[in-house]
Amino acid sequence: MDITPGTRASDAERNAIVTQLGTHLADGRLDLAEYDQRVAKVYATTTRDELAVVLSDLPPLTKQATAPAERTPGKRIPVWQRIEAGSWLGVSVIVLVIWGLISLTAGELTYFWPMWVIGPWGAVLLFRVITGWEATPGTQTHLRQLQRQMKHAQHMDPHNPDRPHRH
């Protein structure tokens, strides 16, 4: 039987550490892979000492920097949503140019097929921005998503991750 010294950590303490990791990710001190590894380590810890190790090589944050950064009007759009929007805009311009060249070559406006590329993709991106489908790391929405993923992972069969574990 393994007896670990130290005070046991609470879920609130784990969530606070994940929030700090999210801030370090947003500041560029961690990459996404290392952030994921550290978050998994945080949720696997049992003591406060183990939690402290996760942050040991990172600088301490101020109170303002550790507060959850829920999206509010006027806040910056997260980097992955800017990348997705840029990709959507680039592809939209390309298909509009192709449609324009086809119409110009045909001498008349042809069927406006770019709407089937631009419309659904844009609607999905807009839906994700409005609903917060992808949450900013460190926010309460992100923490709830991670907790749901952890619960789901606990119910999976450890020998076959594709098949749920049956009791």
What's this entry about, in short?
With 167 residues, the protein is an all-alpha fold. Helix content is 61%, strand content 0%.
Note down, in words, how this protein is organized.
- The relative contact order is 0.12.
- With 167 residues, the chain is mostly helical.
- It has helices at 11-27, 32-44, 48-55, 63-66, 79-106, 115-131, 140-154.
- It contains 7 helices and no strands.
- The two termini are 25 Å apart.
Question: What is the general shape?
Answer: elongated
Largest sheet: none
Mean pLDDT: 78
Structural class: mainly alpha
List the secondary-structure elements in sequence, H or E: HHHHHHH
Oligomerization state of this entry? single chain
**In whole angstroms, how far apart are the ends?**
25 Å
Number of DSSP-assigned strands: 0
In terms of per-residue confidence, which ranges show pLDDT below 50 for 5 or more consecutive residues? none
Q: Tell me the strand percentage band.
A: under 5%
Task: Reconstruct the topology from this structure.
Elements: H1 11-27, H2 32-44, H3 48-55, H4 63-66, H5 79-106, H6 115-131, H7 140-154
Helix pairs in contact: 1-2, 1-3, 5-6
Descriptive terms for the model:
mainly alpha, 7 helices, elongated
